[in-house]
């Protein structure tokens, strides 16, 4: 087995290494797959540990569904380990708790782990894919005016799946 190594993000566009031009940093996207969320959190943690510049220089960090929670954690500097612990706890509950209790737990986790300046860190950099309920239009939410906006957008992505709590967040009905 070969030793692991760090891979650093490229230099800003226009700079060169050994006379070669280097491309601009790439954006990062986390897919929507609830069962992959803990895997994606592990990938993000590995990138944070081994190649932090990749995450720091990404102009956009995007997510859909469960991937939105990972993207928000990356952009807002939340503890990825705490999110993994939460996901494992929620998964272990299985069918013992109803969906509403899981949503309440998710909202509590968001309020606990998102920093007070989450909206400042997220605005313009975090992009969350959503479906607008009235017309089914796909939209990307990337402007946040308060920490509560970030919480509600992350919370709304899960409410759409259940369809019992769709009006809870104003982001689902714009």
Compose a concise summary of this entry.
The chain has helices at residues 37-50, 52-57, 66-76, 80-93, 99-113, 118-122, 147-162; strands at 16-17, 20-21, 28-30, 61-64, 126-131, 138-141.
Helix content: 40-55%
Poorly predicted residue ranges: 1-10, 160-174
Q: Structural class, from helix and strand content?
A: alpha/beta
Distance between the termini: 52 Å
The number of helical runs is 7
Radius of gyration: 17 Å
The helix/strand order is EEEHHEHHHHEEH
Q: Could you say which overall geometry the principal axes of the C-alpha atoms support? A: globular
Q: How is the largest sheet built, in terms of strand order?
A: 3-4-5-6
Major sheet description? 4 strands, mixed
- How much of the residues is beta strand, in percent? 5-15%
Number of strands: 6
Mean pLDDT comes to 75
Description of the molecule:
Residues 28-174 form the PNPLA domain. It holds the Pfam family Patatin. Keywords: Lipid metabolism. InterPro entries: Acyl_Trfase/lysoPLipase (IPR016035), PLPL (IPR033562), PNPLA_dom (IPR002641). This is PNPLA domain-containing protein. The protein is α/β, with parallel strands linked by helices and 174 residues long. Helices cover 47% and strands 12% of the residues. The chain has 7 helices and 6 strands; from the N terminus they run βββααβααααββα. The protein has helices spanning 37-50, 52-57, 66-76, 80-93, 99-113, 118-122, 147-162; strands spanning 16-17, 20-21, 28-30, 61-64, 126-131, 138-141. It has a 4-stranded mixed β-sheet with strand order 3-4-5-6, with helices on one face. The protein has a two-stranded antiparallel ribbon with strand order 1-2. A hairpin with a 2-residue loop joins β1 and β2 (20-21). α1 (37-50) runs antiparallel to α4 (80-93) and α4 (80-93) runs antiparallel to α5. The longest helix is centred in the C-terminal third of the chain and has 16 residues, at 147-162. It is globular and about 60 Å long. The termini are far apart. The model is unreliable at 1-10 and 160-174 (pLDDT under 50).
């Amino acid at each position: 087995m070969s030793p692991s190594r760090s891979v650093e993000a490229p230099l800003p566009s226009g700079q060169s290494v050994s006379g070669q031009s280097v491309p601009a940093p790439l954006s990062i996207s986390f897919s929507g797959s609830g069962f992959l969320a803990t895997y994606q959190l592990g990938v993000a943690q590995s990138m944070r540990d081994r190649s932090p510049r990749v995450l720091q220089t990404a102009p956009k960090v995007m997510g859909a569904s469960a991937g939105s929670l990972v993207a928000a954690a990356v952009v807002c500097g939340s503890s990825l380990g705490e999110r993994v612990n939460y996901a494992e706890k929620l998964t272990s509950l299985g069918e013992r708790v109803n969906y509403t209790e899981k949503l309440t737990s998710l909202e509590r986790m968001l309020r606990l782990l998102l920093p007070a300046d989450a909206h400042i860190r997220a605005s313009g950099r975090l992009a969350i894919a959503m479906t607008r309920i009235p017309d089914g239009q796909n939209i990307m939410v990337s402007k946040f005016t308060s920490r509560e906006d970030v919480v509600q957008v992350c919370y709304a992505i899960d409410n759409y799946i259940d369809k019992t709590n769709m009006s809870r967040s104003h982001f689902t009905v714009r």
